[in-house]
Design brief:
Oligomer: single chain
CATH class: Alpha Beta
Low-confidence stretches: none
Radius of gyration: 18 Å
CATH architecture: 3-Layer(aba) Sandwich
Number of helices: 9
Number of domains: 1
Number of strands: 10
Bound molecules: adenosine-5'-triphosphate, magnesium ion
Mean pLDDT: 90
């Protein structure tokens, strides 16, 4: 008997349209098919306005498509009402937003463990796990400070800790390394990479303009005007070896050829 793996994320004939205010429909996203496998990390690239954030918001249940079906972690999320989507997000999604959306009245460690706190659990359940993540991100000494006492890059790493806390089914990251120096960029990318593929429980989408960040992915998709206009599979030659510069050069030349 063969085991069939359902894709972790599956979009079919998905369209997201907006009214442009003058009565015309503007298409922000138009994807015939996109399947992401369990354990797969996919980077999304494309010019400003090409639909990258729209794609993440649809997969993360923050927005609903105008047409088409979206399945995530075995759940049909297109067609869910707001209440169902809220539960879906809480139980399945780790989101790293372009603007980090930390809770200013909560400390760093509380922000990291937000999903447990919202679920009503006491510190006994979450503090140790959250501190482990903060330690990996070089933030242990800031655990009991508040977000407004941190630099932009430190806040971004708290947002990463929060997204990875509790091993979500999908990690959705919108420019997660935009505010980081190269050392912290590597730490964050490695943590996201390691969180995905653990027991094939997690998969991820990472939006980036940076070929180096994209080189951590298994596959890269290019969006333009809401459509997938190119794909690069980075698993064909096997995973990069320890100490190798990932698929950096290959990705850079593909970026250039795709004129991005
Ligand atoms: N709430 C909205 N109402 C109307 N149009 C919208 C809305 N949200 C997004 N759009 C439009 O949809 C298109 C895609 O936007 P999206 O935010 O997905 O782009 P993006 O690729 O993430 O860009 P960036 O790199 O600048 O973040 C854009 O043309 C944008 O103007
Ligand atoms: Mg965006």
């Amino acid at each position: 008997m063969s085991i069939v793996h359902l894709p972790a994320i599956c979009l079919k004939n998905v369209r997201r349209q907006y009214d442009d205010g003058a009565g015309n429909k503007k298409t922000a996203l138009d994807i015939a098919e996109l399947k992401i496998q369990p354990g797969e990390l996919v980077a999304v690239i494309g010019p400003s306005g090409s639909g990258k954030s729209t794609l993440l918001q649809l997969v993360g249940g923050l927005d609903s498509p105008t047409a088409g079906s979206i399945d995530v972690a075995g759940l049909r999320i297109s067609g869910m009402d707001e209440k169902q989507k809220t539960i879906f997000r809480r139980e399945n999604v780790g989101f790293i937003f372009q603007a980090f959306h930390l809770v200013p009245s909560m400390t760093v460690v509380e922000n990291a463990a937000l999903s447990s706190i919202v679920a009503g659990q006491g510190g006994f359940h979450w503090r140790a796990d959250a501190l482990v993540l903060l330690d990996q991100l070089g933030l242990l000494e800031y655990a009991d400070r508040f977000p407004d006492q941190l630099s932009g890059g430190q806040r971004q790493r708290v947002a990463v800790a929060r997204a990875l806390f509790g091993a979500p089914s999908v990690v959705l990251a919108d420019e997660p390394t935009g505010s980081l120096d190269s050392g912290n960029r590597d730490i964050v990318l490695r943590l996201i990479r390691d969180a995905i593929g653990v027991g094939l429980r997690t998969s991820g989408l990472i939006v980036t303009h940076d070929p180096y960040a994209a080189s951590y992915a298994d596959r890269i998709i290019a969006l333009r005007d809401g459509k997938i206009v190119g794909q690069l599979d980075l698993t064909l030659n096997g995973p990069p070896q320890e100490g190798e510069s990932h698929h950096d050069e290959r990705v850079r030349s593909w970026f250039a050829a795709t004129s991005l």
